[in-house]
Amino acid sequence: MNVTIKGKIEQIGNVQQFASGFQKREVLLTEVEGNYPQTYPIDLTKDKIDLLDGKNVGDTVTLECNLRANEYNGRHFINLSAWRVG
Prior knowledge:
- The chain has no helices and 6 strands.
- The protein starts with a strand and ends with a strand.
């Protein structure tokens, strides 16, 4: 499922490198539209990490994301994974 979120960047995390070679970076984005703004942690992985280059805390951006669900040890998790930053 694709999700579009327009918001203000609250925090840009450092790139995390894992032993497997996998890389990810997290950005906290607060919605700028709607009556009850939410703050979302959104991942950028692999070749998408560089999409945040040139962006700063306080910038308003639009993120195109995939909503992903995973199961681990009987627990289910949902995350947003960005693939376009505008």
